[in-house]
Amino acid sequence: MAAGDIPPGPPEALVGLNTATATVHASCVALGGRAVLILGPSGSGKSALALSLMAFGARLVSDDRVALRRDGPRLIATAPEAIRGLIEARGVGLLRAEAEAEAVVALAVDLARIETARLPQRREIDLLGHPVVLLSKVEALHFPAAILQYLKAGRRGDDD
Q1: Cα torsion at 51, 56, 58, 59 (round to 10°)?
Q2: Is residue 1 part of a domain?
């Protein structure tokens, strides 16, 4: 593997996650009923990315913990009741937000890995037996806008 290459496979926290339901340490926002699951260690910017996406029109599904469940061919994200409608903004506090009751997970973003390829190959993560397209963090200003466009229309070569 060359320097800067991203190793294949899911983020370590999700290895072996193949049950009917699970709660994961992540943030999740949706646009048009399609959700992005934002993964990464504490302090990696999950809530900050979610807030940026919300500023562009996405709606909060859940922050900090996301409940996932299988629903036939779909993977559904919801918020645990205790944190529904709340998102943390570091240095500001817990903010209230209108939240989607649930959304279909269409994309996952791993903030623990940096994407270096201009046109990255398709990667997936298996969540509860469902393959989900996995992007790594892009350190560029267009990243939130690109995520929203992915939720709207997908990416060439991906079968959503």
Answers
A1: 60
A2: no
What's the number of domains the chain is made of? 1
Which residue type occupies 3?
A
* Catalytic residue (one of 5, 34, 63, 64): 64
Tokens representing 40 are: 């990464």
160 domain residue, yes or no: no
Examine the residue annotation and report whether 126 is marked as an active-site residue of this protein.
no
Clarify whether 46 is annotated catalytic: yes
Element (H, E) at 143: helix 143-153
- Tens digits of pLDDT across the chain (160 residues): 333 333 444 455 554 456 789 999 999 999 999 999 999 999 999 999 999 999 999 999 999 999 999 999 999 999 999 999 999 999 999 999 999 999 999 999 999 999 998 988 889 999 998 999 999 999 999 999 999 999 999 888 776 4
pTM for the whole structure: 0.87
Whether 40 is covered by a domain: the verdict is yes
Domain assignment of residue 122, given as a range: 17-153
